[in-house]
Specification:
Chain A folds into two domains: 58-80 and 175-289, Cytochrome Bc1 Complex, Chain D, domain 2 (Orthogonal Bundle), CATH 1.10.760.10; 84-169, Cytochrome Bc1 Complex, Chain D, domain 2. Chain A is built from twelve helices and seven strands. Chain A has helices at 11-19, 34-39, 69-76, 83-94, 105-109, 112-115, 136-145, 158-169, 185-196, 206-210, 244-254, 265-277; strands spanning 125-127, 132-134, 217-218, 221-222, 233-235, 240-242, 287-289. In chain A, a hairpin with a 4-residue loop joins strand 5 and strand 6. The two termini of chain A are 19 Å apart. In chain A, 42% of the residues are buried. Chain B is of the alpha+beta class. Chain B has a single domain (30-145), classed as Immunoglobulin-like, CATH 2.60.40. Chain B is built from three helices and nine strands; from the N terminus they run H-H-H-E-E-E-E-E-E-E-E-E. Chain B has helices at residues 4-12, 16-23, 31-45, and strands spanning 51-52, 55-58, 62-63, 69-75, 85-92, 99-104, 109-117, 123-131, 136-145. In chain B, strands 1, 3, 5, 6, 8 and 9 form a six-stranded mixed beta sheet that branches. Chain B has a three-stranded antiparallel beta sheet with strand order 2-4-7, with no helix packed on it. Chain B is globular. Chain C is elongated. Chain C is built from no helices and eight strands. In chain C, a hairpin with a 4-residue loop joins strand 7 (86-94) and strand 8 (99-108). Classes of the chains: A mainly alpha, B alpha+beta, C mainly beta.
C-alpha cells in the first residue's frame, strides 16, 4: 500500500474521539461552525421512501447529497467527472480480444449499451453453479477464465475496476434491485450481522457511523448513509476509481480492525446487505466522492 | 486590503502577530516553505510589489478533500495585442513545494483558467498575474483543508 | 504513453472572427508527486506531466507549467479566441520526455 501524497494521518485520532463513548447509541457530532453548516448541502429530501418496511431509514439517500457543492458539480458533468477516464478504458477493453479462445466480451454480449443495461443494478446475484452469490468483479472474471480462456484480472487492477465501472455505467439511473430472498437469504442475514458487529480497537460497527450518525460530522467528515449505488467511485482523496470492497477495507482499517479480504464471503455478504439498504437508489457509477 | 507580501514585511518589522491575527491567517507552514514562496513570487514579479486586484482566485472555503480542490483564476484584462496578461502563477504557501501551476495567456486567449490542485493543509493560495507591461497584481484565498475521520 | 487518449471538449468548433471557444481537457495521469513513499519507506520518484500547450497551426494560444501540486488526471478549462481556421494541437509533456497529443479542427468564419 502506498503512503498518501500528503499524509493526513490524524484519521485515527478522529476515530478515537468517536470511540470515547463507544456504546452510546447517539454519538455527538462535532458541531460544525455556522458557516460550514450553511455550506453543506441539505441531504434530506433528496432520497426515496424505503422499499422495504424493514429498512432502517426514514429516507434512503445517495452519498452524493452528503458531499459539497463542488463535488456534486464534478459528478454532474460527465466531462468533468474523472471517473469517466476509467469508463472509457472499460469500453475499449469490452471489445478487445483477450485469451486463448480469441474472444472479447463483445463476442458473446455484443453492445454493452443493450446487453448490460440494468444488469449490474441486480448484483451481487446468486450463481447456481457455484452455489453462492457473486458480485460484478467476480462475474467478470468468471467470463474471463471461462468463455475467454484468459487470465483473471486481479481485484483492484485498473482493468477490473474499469470494466466494473463500464458495466455498472450501463445501468446508470436505474434503481438498485438486488434480490435477497431464496438462496440469498442466509447471505443477507450474514451481511446484516456483520453490519451491526462492532470491530477493531475502536469498537465501531458500520451502523455506528452510517445508520446512527449519518448527516452528522465525524470531526470534519460529514457522514453519509454508506450507500453503494455509486461504486466504483472516483475518490478525490485517491484521485482514482475505488471499488467497493477496497472502500470497506478502508473503513475497517480506520476502526483499527483487521479487514476482511476483498472478494471474501464476508464482504460479499456485506455488499449484498448494503445494496439492499439502498434498494431503489439510482446507480450513479462512476460517482465522485471525498 | 494589503497584499500578502506586505504582511510578510510586517512580520519582519515585528508587528506580525497583530497583522496575522487581523488577516485571520494561521502561522502553520514551515518558514522554509514561506521563504520559498516569497522567492518564487519575487522572481515572477521581477522584484515588483504586486498590487491587490485585477486577478481573481476562486477556491472553496473548505475543501472536501485536499487532494482534489477545484480552482479558477481570472484576470480583468482587455487581452489585446497592446494589453494582455502574460502569465498567472499560483503558489500554495503551506505545501511542501509552493509552486502549483503557471498559466501562460496570449491575446488569442481569455484570461481565465480552471484546474484541480492538491493542498497539503489549511493555507493561503496566492495568484500573481504579470501583464505584458510588467505590472503585477495578486489575490489570495485561504482554503481550509480538514482532517477527516475517514475521507482524509 | 501512446495508448493514453485525452478527453477534449470544445463548446463549438466554428466561430466568427473574435469569437471565443471554451476548451475542456482531461487526461489520465497519476501525477506522482515525489512526496509519497512506498511500503518500504522509499520515496517514489516524481513523475508528472509538467507542461500543457494548446497551439493553433503551430502558434501557442494557451499553455501551462504544472508542478506536483496539480491533482492526478489533470483537468483544464480555458477559453481561446482563434484568429484563423486550422488545427488545434493539445500536448502534454511528461517528466520522462514522452508526450500525449490530440488534435481538433476548428473553423473561423
Amino acid at each position: 500500500m502506498m503512503v498518501h501524497p500528503y499524509p493526513l494521518a490524524l484519521t485515527a485520532i478522529a476515530l478515537v474521539a468517536l470511540a470515547v463513548a463507544p456504546h452510546a447509541q447517539d454519538m455527538p457530532s462535532a458541531a460544525p461552525s455556522a458557516k460550514e453548516a450553511s455550506e453543506r448541502p441539505a441531504w434530506q429530501a433528496h432520497g426515496l421512501k424505503p422499499q422495504s418496511p424493514d429498512s432502517p431509514f426514514e429516507e434512503v439517500v445517495s452519498g452524493l447529497y452528503f458531499r459539497s457543492k463542488e463535488t456534486q458539480d464534478m459528478q454532474a458533468d460527465d466531462f468533468n467527472n474523472p471517473g469517466f477516464l476509467a469508463v472509457e478504458q472499460g469500453e475499449e477493453l469490452w471489445s478487445k480480444v483477450d485469451g486463448a479462445a480469441g474472444k472479447s466480451c463483445a463476442s458473446c454480449h455484443d453492445a454493452a449499451s443493450t446487453s448490460m443495461k440494468g444488469v449490474a443494478a441486480a448484483y451481487p446475484k446468486w450463481n447456481g453453479k457455484l452455489a453462492k452469490p457473486v458480485n460484478l468483479e467476480q462475474r467478470i472474471d468468471i467470463c474471463r477464465t471461462g468463455a475467454l480462456k484468459a487470465e483473471p484480472w486481479a481485484f483492484g487492477s485498473p482493468e477490473l475496476t474499469a470494466m466494473t465501472a463500464y458495466i455498472r455505467n450501463q445501468s446508470r439511473g436505474m434503481p438498485v434491485a438486488v434480490k435477497v430472498d431464496g438462496p440469498m437469504t442466509p447471505w443477507f442475514e450474514r451481511g446484516k450481522a456483520l453490519y451491526y458487529q462492532r470491530n477493531g480497537q475502536l469498537d465501531l460497527a458500520c451502523a455506528s457511523c452510517h445508520e446512527k450518525n449519518h448527516g452528522k460530522y465525524l470531526r470534519a467528515d460529514f457522514l453519509s448513509q454508506g450507500q453503494s449505488n455509486g461504486f466504483p467511485v472516483y475518490r478525490l482523496r485517491d484521485q482514482r476509481l475505488v471499488p467497493l470492497h477496497e472502500r470497506m477495507e478502508g473503513c475497517m482499517q480506520d476502526v483499527r480492525a483487521t479487514p476482511f479480504k476483498p472478494l471474501s464471503d464476508e464482504f460479499l455478504a456485506l455488499e449484498t446487505y448494503v445494496a439492499w439498504r439502498g434498494l431503489g437508489l439510482p446507480v450513479e457509477t462512476p460517482a465522485v466522492r471525498n | 486590503m494589503t497584499s500578502p507580501f506586505n504582511r510578510r514585511q510586517a512580520l519582519a518589522l515585528g508587528t506580525g502577530a497583530v497583522a496575522a491575527a487581523a488577516l485571520g491567517l494561521r502561522a502553520g507552514p514551515a518558514l522554509a516553505a514561506k521563504a520559498a514562496t516569497d522567492e518564487a513570487i519575487k522572481a515572477f514579479t521581477r522584484g515588483r510589489e504586486p498590487v491587490r486586484g485585477k486577478v481573481k482566485l476562486e477556491l472553496p472555503e473548505i475543501a472536501e478533500n485536499g487532494n482534489t480542490v477545484p480552482m479558477t483564476v481570472s484576470v480583468d484584462a482587455p487581452m489585446t495585442k497592446d494589453s494582455f496578461v502574460e502569465e498567472v502563477m499560483i503558489v500554495a504557501e503551506g505545501n511542501p513545494n509552493p509552486g502549483v501551476i503557471s498559466f501562460h495567456f496570449t491575446p488569442s486567449s481569455v484570461a481565465e483558467a480552471n484546474t484541480r490542485i492538491r493542498l497539503a493543509e489549511t493555507q493561503n493560495v496566492i495568484a500573481v498575474a504579470r501583464m505584458n507591461d510588467g505590472s503585477v497584481f495578486s489575490d489570495v484565498k485561504q482554503v481550509k483543508v480538514t482532517i477527516g475521520g475517514c475521507g482524509g | 504513453m501512446a495508448d493514453v487518449k485525452p478527453r477534449i471538449k470544445l463548446d463549438k468548433k466554428e466561430v466568427a472572427q473574435g469569437g471565443v471557444i471554451e476548451v475542456k481537457t482531461l487526461v489520465s495521469h497519476t501525477m506522482e508527486s515525489g512526496q509519497r513513499k512506498d511500503k518500504d519507506g522509499k520515496t517514489i520518484p516524481r513523475k508528472i506531466l509538467n507542461t500543457f500547450t494548446c497551439d493553433l497551426n503551430g502558434k501557442t494560444l494557451f499553455s501551462a507549467n504544472l508542478e506536483s501540486a496539480v491533482s492526478a488526471n489533470p483537468y483544464f478549462q480555458f477559453k481561446i479566441r482563434p484568429e484563423e481556421s486550422g488545427t488545434l494541437t493539445f500536448t502534454w509533456t511528461d517528466d520522462d520526455g514522452s508526450k500525449i497529443q490530440a488534435t481538433e479542427q476548428i473553423k473561423v468564419a
